[in-house]
Amino acid sequence: xxxxxxxxxxxxxxxxxxxxxxxxxxxxxxxxxxxxxxxxxxxxxxxxxxxxxxxxxxxxxxxxxxxxxxxxxxxxxxxxxxxxxxxxxxxxxxxxxxxxxxxxxx
Length: 106
Fold this sequence. Notes:
mainly alpha
């Protein structure tokens, strides 16, 4: 009785194996393309759209431009303060020299 069940089962497994082998052999060359297409589809779905990236880039550039303007203004203020300090120091030296010369003339 077991032999009657086992023989058709073995034949079925052999036929199924042969069928799957034929299917795999015929479709195997296209598997690489399908895999690449699948990876590309996932990659496109995960990356933001270019218009979104463009908008983000515009916002980043605007913030950086604003930061550059602030830093330029700070730099100009420092330069002006340094120039004023140097001018005041020179004027103080001139005044001291004039006062000293007046004392010497007396």
